[in-house]
Structures are given as C-alpha cells and as structure tokens.
Design brief:
Order of helices and strands: HHHHHHHHHHHHHHHHH
Shape: flat
Structural class: mainly alpha
Distance between the termini: 34 Å
Strand content: under 5%
Helix content: 55-70%
Amino acid sequence: MHAWEGDPQPEADSRLKPTPDYGSLGPASEQRSPGSIKPDGGNPRAFIAIAAGALLALAFVSGGPARAAWTEISQFLSLQGKPEPASPAIMSPHELEKLDHTSAQHQAELLLERAINHYEGANDQIAARADNWRSHLELSPQLNSLITTGLNSNDLRVRAAAIEVDLAAMNVAKTGDNMESLIQQAESGPQSQRIWALWTLGLLGNRGVARERAIQVLVAQLQDSNPEIRHWAVEGLAYLGTNETIAPLLQIFHDDPSPMVRERAACSLAQSGMLTQEQRRSVIPQLLNYTEDASLDAQTRGWAYHALRDITGQNLPEDPSAWRNWYSSASN
C-alpha cells in the first residue's frame, strides 16, 4: 500500500496486504517479514578485515601485483549512479525446463521474484501458468511477501503479474460467474466477506472481467455507513484502474467523513493501484484546487500536496502559488 508517514492507518487486518497501499493487499493473510541469510562459520566481517589487512601489508612490502589487488578491492561498488547489471535479466531455457518439474508453489514464487527483478519472459510465464496454479498455491509468508512487493513495484506490468498470482493463490477464476458471486458477497455478506469481495472485485475487473459491473458495485459501496467498507471499496477502485474510477476517488478524497478513507483515496490517486502515470497526472488540476479549498481541513490539504509530489516528482513547498506556477510552466 503506500501509506504516508504520520497519516491515519486502516484498522489492522489479519493479512497485511491491506492497509492497502500497495501490498498484495487483500484481506486475509499473515504479516510477513523478510528472512535473513547468515553465512556459516564465524564472523564474515572479521574475515574480510583480516584479509584486507594482510593484502595491505603485502602491498607495502612487495608492491606491484599485491598493491594492484588492494586497489581493486578498495574500489567497492558505490550505491550511487546508474543501475549496474549483474548479468543479463533473461530467463534461460535451462531454468524454464527445470521449472516444469517443480511444484506450482515453487513456480509461482520463482517467477514472481523474476518478474519483480524484470527478467525477460517472467511475465509471459506467469500469464501462461497462473490459471493452472489455482487450488495448488498456499499463501505462505514468502509468497505473500512477493505479492506485496509486486503490488508495490513502480512497473505496472509487475503489479499486473502480482495480481495474477494473488488471484491464483486465492483460487479465484477469472469468470463472469465469479464476479457475480463476489458482487453478492460485497453487497450482503458479513463484513469480513464484504471486505474480501470488494478487494477481489477490483483485481478481477483489472484483469478484464466485467469491468463495468465491478465499478458500479464499488462506487455504490462508497455510500456505505461503515468506513471499513468504504475503505475497501476505494482499494477495489484503485486496482480496477480505469478512467471511470478517477472521479469517484477524487470525490471521496474531498468529501468522505473518515480521515482514513480520504487518505486511502488520495494515495490511490497518487501511488497505489493500477492507474497509469498519465491518468494520475490528469488529476493535478483538481488537486491544485484542493490545496486552496477552505472547506477542507489542514490534514486533507496536506494530503493533496503529498499526492502532487508523488505524481509529479517535484518537491515544492506547501504553497498553492508555487505549485500553480510550476504547473503553468510545465504545461507550456
């Protein structure tokens, strides 16, 4: 999800995909934490220090090759600068051949990790295999973490791949019948079912299943008296990602009585979900109006500035004139 520091957070869910900002935010999963890999045997830092010291001493004694070796070691890779490829980001035929003999769980985890790292062919493999993974995947901490990472990617194709894996992991087929079943749950089920259904409606709609029906239901749920239902209707709209979702999200950002729901709408317009960069930039004029809207409280106007910074990449002060001057010059 993308949550802005210091902003109200949605009520905790059993699956920390929500607080949807970007994560495989779907209700119902465990919070994950990255694992750690520790080398066997002793302290690697101490070993490196000893080796470096020995090379340094040798360089001063013998010069020549030893000094050159020390120079090479000392020129460690900086964190600044352009990306430095480790190897071509291509899935090899050998790797794909081995993949056919592994479990669906391994396939999903490996291919989503490769997609996140922009390996050529990974998205194609996910598209070809995802339907066959249904009923064979477990939302393990590792897979859940990868889905959340994918949904937070700055590449919409990676987010789409994460959606495909999430639907497969939830055993949700991309059919009109499933959409109708989810709509019934969203409209009349218990709260936990409604939340899950609203989230999944957005994912299915994004993958091309009954988009118009999905947006009708999600927009209708924005009028629910329960802020948690409105929150998840916002998340569903964000992941649906069509032009028709923009106006409802802007209205909710301006008018919803819940600060949490307003924040989620702002983040959906600026960062989360499946809107394109072009779609997000289309809301700049309205966000500029919100920065000067006296009917909005200071916190909501602050979120309008947050959204403007996220959409434009500009780090201007919270001054409407500064933003309007920038927008005027950028539009010419």
